What we know:
Elements: E1 2-6, E2 13-18, H1 24-27, E3 31-35, H2 41-68, H3 76-100, H4 106-114, H5 120-128, H6 136-142, H7 155-183, H8 187-193, H9 222-233, H10 237-254, H11 265-276, H12 284-287, H13 291-298, H14 308-327, H15 354-361, H16 364-367, E4 369-371, E5 374-378, H17 386-397, H18 401-405, E6 412-415, E7 418-423, E8 439-442, H19 445-449, H20 452-461, H21 481-494, H22 505-516, H23 521-528, H24 545-552
Antiparallel strand pairs: 1-2, 2-3, 4-5, 6-7, 7-8
Helix pairs in contact: 3-7, 9-14, 10-11, 10-14, 17-22
Amino acid sequence: MTYLLRHPKSHVYFLRRVVPPALRETVGRREIRRSLRTRDLAEAKRRLVAAAAEVDRMFAEAERHQAEGAPLSITLEDARNWVEDWLKRELKKIEAHAATRGRRPIERILREIRGCEETEDAYKIQLACNRPDGLLLPISEVLEGRPITLSPDGPEAALLAKALAPAWLRWVSALRESYRDELGVSEERLNRLWPVAGLEPFVPMAPDLSEPAETDSEETTLSQAFEKYAAEANLRPQTLAEFTTALRRFREVVGGDPPVRTIGKAHVRQWKEALLRMPRRLSIEDRRLPLPEIVVRYDGRAVERVSSGTVGKMMTALQAVMGWAVRNGFAEQNPCLGMRPKTEARIERLPFGARDLTLIFSSPVFTGCRSARDRFAPGDLVIRDALYWIPWIALWTGARLEEIGQLALADIKRDDEVDYFDFNDFGEGKSVKTRTSVRKVPIHRELIRLGFLDHVADLRRSGEIQLFPELRVVRFGKRTAAFSKVWGRLLTTLGIDDQGKTFHSFRHAFKDSCREAGLREDVHDALTGHAGGGVGRRYGAGHSLRRLAEAVDRVAYAGVGPQKP
């Protein structure tokens, strides 16, 4: 069955057709999608007929190949002929569009140039603006109606890319000329609207299909090096995403996916300068744009730029990958060394003082609020949920926010007559910052007096698994993202507006209280999961639960008085 659907973001209509199970191996996919390149429903229905007929022809050709046992590999002559057919179709579309359009506002034209990432036209523009991964989409257009689907990393795809490169540049030139005529601007002005630096797309070397491909370490590209580095380093999901974004921005600036051996300080400097000109806040639409286009768009505007610390963090990604490439013989030097910008003075994290703790724990969240929807207004309702218990746990354990938020009921344990938190990374979605973050922390007697163990028992009887079931896992497996925002609003409401005071200030306050209580450094390091001291601390089983329980119960705070259980 053929479906006519509309993309939820771009509102462009497209065809969706499920590939018959018997043809999926030949066609190479489970379903076919074809953009109809219109937001008008009536026009989409008209175009759907032709698009559906084209898919029918593809299926018929696939059936013929199955029946005859015809080979599906391609020759260079096939590739050139198919590319030439594609170019003729695309140039006719440009001519037809130019003959019918009138003068339009420049912003509308720019929106058309940028388009939306989910449409076919957007991928073309992204490639012209140094997004080499966009080359895969014109390859798929070249193959429309032909019963063959190529692997992006396969030799046939490389062969087709080689044939496509000169035709691609002709298509880009024709499209640019069309927009220049419509805008009535000079080539220089058009270059500001549509940057052309590195316009020639990255084209993989087409190997000789008659010989087995050989791996040449000197030609290992940045993307290939990153893939190998990430697999070896076992990066966390969040770190992997941050590195992926940083390296994508680098490729956008230098154009293509360069071999790591060719990356030099000039490339890194150019990337750094572009990053420093990037706005601190971008709309979702602008965030999708290539970095050179972002820079051009915001040049001269009075907007806050990203901090040098953020730029340095992004450059760390490239430095790490290039360092790995040097160690593994893929590159001779790491051009990132010494290139990171000088960072501003970091805002020092501060502990909550006695006044802060008094304000926090005498607030309506802990003493009684108006309703579940109005937790900051005073009332008679005490809701013992994550917002209530997590700060108390942080106060008496010094644990990190996410460490507390990801606790399961099974992590609340009792051994040797001591109730304790078992902070670990056992279980789906759980993680710890460092190896020493896996630890056992006895439950402070004040938490027990407040009814924490009774709360745990109630949750177990109700069949819950998590200590805070209301916290939902979001991006990168984090549970406390929404909590963190609510906590920030609470501090603002209470007038605690020092930038150095965040939820992490509980951890600093706990360390200070441990010192005030006279606990040895190795003891409070064991409680907080800090890797302090010398080699000797790594030997033996560590501190007993009883010893740690005695230490925890000595911790006290001047600003926190007795609370109602």
